[in-house]
């Protein structure tokens, strides 16, 4: 069922794989494996519920600091996920967009990502954003560098710079800003995720650990979003035209 007040772009901080594994007496990597299954469910749920843009935080710039065997296992899982899911993305006409510092990822992963992005680039309705080697601060530094360079060579007048122009330099490019950010596992922080783009996003903190995330919880987040009022600095009265009828 397609709801009213649907977010166009949902971005998710997929957290809790490690705790899920611990609770089940399993190694952390098993939590990540089950997390990959939850990603597949989530992709289906987003499309089934009419959400056109979904961005998933899969690996942060800070995640390189984890034990090497966990990092390696995550890269292997990512490789497998991309191999298995490309036909699915094609079938369901979903465009893949990677956000993050691409060139620091293992060469084999870069090749798969390039292949999947190229194969799906002509799909226009649905987009899956994968945040890989992503960090907001790094993204903003990269954008600032590119903007400074454009100004230096005379392609951009600093006086003309506004958010509309600045956002074109972010990894997210022409993607709309997220309307709803979900974080699973009960944590209440953004962990360097889409800090600028989420300036006016609604935030839904889910207690569910990511491997247990399913369509029911996705729908809970959508219902909660539908009941929120996005004011963008205005008063509640300004947003409800009927309350102004006696004060024309
Ligand atoms: C999220 O789960 C997956 C990644 C960050 C790659 P975690 O691995 O962070 O799970 P917890 O926080 O240890 O439970
Ligand atoms: C955020 O989760 C990164 C991803 C979901 C990929 P973390 O588990 O790395 O975040 P912190 O360290 O708890 O803030
Ligand atoms: Mg975590």
Structure description:
The chain is an alpha/beta fold and 248 residues long. The protein has a single domain, classed as Decaprenyl diphosphate synthase-like (Undecaprenyl pyrophosphate synthetase, 3-Layer(aba) Sandwich), CATH 3.40.1180. The chain has 8 helices and 6 strands, in the order E-H-H-E-H-E-H-E-H-H-E-E-H-H. It has a 6-stranded parallel beta sheet, sandwiched between helices. Helix 4 links the parallel strand 3 and strand 4. It is globular. Bound molecules: 3-methylbut-3-enyl trihydrogen diphosphate (2 copies) and magnesium ion. One 3-methylbut-3-enyl trihydrogen diphosphate (IPE) binds next to strand 2.
How many E-type strands?
6
Major sheet description: 6 strands, parallel
CATH architecture: 3-Layer(aba) Sandwich
Oligomer: single chain
Strands side by side in the biggest sheet: 3-4-2-1-5-6
Shape descriptor reads globular
Identify every distinct bound molecule in the structure, by name, code or SMILES: 3-methylbut-3-enyl trihydrogen diphosphate, magnesium ion
Q: What is the fold named in CATH at topology level? A: Undecaprenyl pyrophosphate synthetase
Average pLDDT metric:
95
Instruction: List the total number of helices.
Output: 8
Summarize the helices and strands and which ones pair or pack:
Layout: E1 9-13, H1 17-23, H2 28-48, E2 53-60, H3 68-91, E3 94-99, H4 107-120, E4 126-134, H5 136-152, H6 163-168, E5 180-183, E6 202-205, H7 215-227, H8 236-239
Parallel strand pairs: 1-2, 1-5, 2-4, 3-4, 5-6
The structure holds 3-methylbut-3-enyl trihydrogen diphosphate (2 copies) and magnesium ion.
């Amino acid at each position: 069922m397609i709801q009213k007040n649907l977010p166009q772009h949902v971005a998710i901080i997929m957290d809790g794989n490690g705790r899920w594994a611990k609770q089940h007496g399993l190694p952390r990597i098993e939590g990540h494996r089950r997390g990959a299954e939850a990603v597949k469910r989530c992709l289906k749920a987003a499309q089934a519920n009419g959400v056109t843009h979904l961005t998933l935080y899969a690996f942060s710039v800070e995640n390189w600091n984890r034990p090497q065997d966990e990092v390696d296992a995550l890269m292997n899982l990512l490789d497998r996920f991309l191999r298995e899911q490309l036909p699915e993305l094609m079938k369901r006409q979903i465009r893949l967009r990677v956000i993050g510092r691409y060139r620091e990822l293992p060469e084999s992963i870069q090749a798969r990502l390039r292949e999947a992005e190229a194969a799906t680039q002509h799909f226009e309705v649905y987009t899956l954003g994968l945040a890989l080697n992503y960090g907001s601060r790094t993204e903003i530094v990269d954008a600032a560098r590119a903007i400074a360079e454009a100004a230096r060579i005379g392609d951009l007048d600093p006086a003309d710079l506004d958010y509309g122009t600045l956002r074109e330099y972010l990894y997210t490019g022409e993607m709309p800003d997220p309307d709803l950010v979900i974080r699973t596992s009960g944590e209440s922080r953004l962990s360097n995720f889409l800090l600028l783009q989420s300036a006016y996003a609604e935030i839904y903190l889910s207690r569910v650990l990511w491997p247990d995330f399913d369509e029911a919880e996705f729908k809970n987040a959508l219902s909660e979003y539908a009941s929120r009022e996005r004011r963008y600095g205005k008063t509640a009265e300004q947003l409800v035209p009927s309350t102004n009828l006696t004060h024309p």
